[in-house]
Amino acid sequence: MRLKKNILVGRINFFIILLYFIFINIISSTKALENQEAPEGKFIEIKILDKVSSKNNLLKIKIGEEKKYKNLLIKSLKCKNSEFDDNPEITAYLQVIDLASNNNDEVFVFNGWTFSSGPTINPFDHPVYDIWLMKCY
Question: For residue 90, which of 31, 57, 47 has the smallest C-alpha distance?
Answer without folding.
Answer: 47
